[in-house]
Structures are given as structure tokens and as C-alpha cells.
Amino acid sequence: MKSTAILLWLIALGFTSSAQNKTDTVKIDKHIPHRPASIGIIGDTADVNTPVKGGIAMIGGGKDVDNAFKWMITRSGGGDVVVIRASGTDAYNSYIFGLGKVNSVETLKIDSRELANNDTVANIIRNAEMLFIAGGDQSNYMKYWRGTKTLDAINYLLNVKHAPVGGTSAGCAILGGFYYSGEDRSITADEALNDPYTPLVKVYNNDFLQAPYLKNVIIDQHYLTRNRQGRHVTFLSRIIKNWNIYANGIAADERTAVCMDENGQAIIIGTSKAYFLITDAKKSPETCEPGKPLTWNRKNQAIRVYEIQATPEGSGSFDIAHFKKGKATGGKWYWWWVDNGKLNQQEIK
């Protein structure tokens, strides 16, 4: 009777015989002290070390892009996947676990600087073969994670271990060296274009993630769905004015992912479009001043933009490592420019 009671107790906790199946589901209670921040794990709890290939998946939000996750899973070598977020649930665990063969998927809810500086939390991230940053509010990621052991662990994966790292929506926005924080509220394109110096335009310069090839890039997402092209251009204008750096832009619409490999070469996976914005040091904005609408015309050729239509299998290519127009395939080139706060575009024939 005593052994039966013990067995029933183990089953109630979610533990099953690993001799039956190594990938039996194991749920870990978030209150277990040796697993801080964990809100659930599925798969084998024993750590593995698989061969990995670097890569960055920049996902534009909305419905998840299955094949972008499969792209990351392949690069993980089937190892341990960690999802990090500052709010929400462990819903990604079963989703990712069902897309391909991985050892485990665990979600960490890191919603305080204390947790972000916890050694165990940082080590769970460092031991991952794939990391995914969920959506939410990127200002919370900045507030809780910047300057912490969690941040060090993410940058370790990006630059030392070279494991694949992805992010969607807010998790995508912070992948660039330059990033828009949205810490007061999310600004619209019209607001940004009508006054590039409104307090809502808060852009930070390389004090957070250090992803390969993205040092001088600012990323935006939900791009067409929320009409964000104009605010993206405004962010680029402010980077020029603030730091005299002619940064470039990457943007993905919802249900679309820009998947960049370890050599800085990208394909577009999903169902909508992605954009690559190239600035020119000879073409600074004509008017970028407080209280005045943005004008960035330069004879209707202010910013060169490449548009690629995604496919579920992956389409087009773009050289993010160099932003060289000669290596782009599968899309269309445009000129974008701004007149008195109005964004214009014309296809380059």
C-alpha cells in the first residue's frame, strides 16, 4: 500500500518512467526553488549538448510562422529550447515541441531584475541550443534585462555559442543594435512623421543585444498590418541626427519571418512581406527638427528599399551582412521619401 501511494504521488506530480520514453512530458512547478523563473518544461529534463548553427529569426508578430521555428529547430541540432518572456504563459512549450525533434522546451518568465540576475536563470539560457524571445512589451525587456546576467547569457548564445535565436513582435524589435523601446506607448507613423522629436520616439544605441550583423540595424514589426513604414523611416532619421550613423532597417509584416543564417544571408518565410531599408551618407534628412514634420526627400530618392514577398518554404534572399543591393534576389526595389510628414514610394524600374 505504501509503495502504491508513493507511485500515485509521483504520477500526480507529472513524473513518469523515463525507461518507457525519454521524451515523456515533465511539468515543473514554477515555485520549485532550484528552477526560478520557470513556468513549465516539456520533454527530457536532462541537459544535452548538440551541435548548433547560428542564425536569427526576426518574426513580425501575429500568427506564428511554423517553418521559421522549424528552421531554428534544425539549427539547434535538436537540443534544449528556452523561451523567455516577461509576461504570459508557457503556451510555446507544446507548440515548439510539436514542430520537430528537440530534447526539451522550457519557458522562463523573467519579470524582475532579481530574476534576471539569478545565476540559475542565466545558466538555463546559456545551456540552451535555441532561444526564442516571445512577444509582449519590449520596454519591459529593456527594464528587467538590460545590464543583467540574463542579457549576458543571451549575448553569449549569439556571439560565443552561436546558437539560433529568434523573436516575435516585441521579441523581434529588440534584436537590432538600435531599437525602439515603446516605453511610454507605441507611436503611430503619423505621429512620428509629424514630429520626429516627440517624446514618444525613444531609440537606443547598442546597449542591449549584440546580434551578429545587426549592430547598425533597427527592426520594426507588424509592419503593413499596423502601417509602420513611416515611423521606421523616422527612427532612421533620428539615428542620423543623434549619432551621425546611417543605419539600415529590417522589417517584417505579421505572419512573416526574416531568417538570417550564420553568414548574414536572409530568406523570407511566411505569407506576407519583408522590407530592407538602406540609407546613404550623402542623403541626410532635409528637415528633422523638434516640432516640425519630417522632410527627407533628396530628389525623391532618400531611402532605397527592397521588398520581398514571403512563401511558406522561404523565398528571396538579402545580404544583411553588407546591405549590398547587388546580392538581393526575388523582390522589388523602391525609393522611399518623405515630404512634410508624408511618406511616398516609387518602384525602381
Summarize the structure.
The chain is built from ten helices and 17 strands. By secondary structure, it is of the alpha/beta class.
List the helices and strands and how they pair.
Elements: H1 2-13, E1 38-43, E2 55-59, H2 66-76, E3 80-85, H3 91-97, E4 104-109, H4 113-116, H5 119-126, E5 130-133, H6 138-145, H7 149-161, E6 164-168, H8 170-173, E7 178-180, H9 189-194, E8 203-205, E9 217-221, H10 229-243, E10 248-252, E11 256-261, E12 265-270, E13 273-278, E14 303-309, E15 315-319, E16 331-339, E17 342-347
Parallel strand pairs: 2-6, 3-4, 3-5, 5-6, 9-10
Antiparallel strand pairs: 1-4, 2-11, 7-8, 10-13, 11-12, 12-15, 13-14, 14-16, 16-17
Helix pairs in contact: 5-7
Number of strands: 17
Low-confidence stretches: 1-32
* N-to-C span: 81 Å
Chain-averaged pLDDT: 92
**Helix-strand topology string:** HEEHEHEHHEHHEHEHEEHEEEEEEEE
The number of helical runs is: 10
Strand order of the largest sheet: 1-4-3-5-6-2-11-12-15
Rg over alpha carbons: 22 Å
The domain count comes to 2
Indicate the structural class: alpha/beta
Q: How much strand content do the residues show? A: 25-35%
- Give the overall silhouette: globular
Major beta-sheet overview: 9 strands, mixed
Helix content class: 25-40%
Could you walk me through the main structural features you see in this protein, from its secondary elements to its overall organization?
The chain folds into 2 domains: 10-46 and 66-166, Rossmann fold, CATH 3.40.50; 176-349, no CATH class. Helix 5 runs parallel beside helix 7. It has 349 residues and is α/β, with parallel strands linked by helices. The radius of gyration is 22 Å and the shape is globular. The strands form 3 sheets. The chain has a 9-stranded mixed sheet with strand order 1-4-3-5-6-2-11-12-15, sandwiched between helices. A hairpin with a 3-residue loop joins strand 11 (256-261) and strand 12 (265-270). It is built from 10 helices and 17 strands.
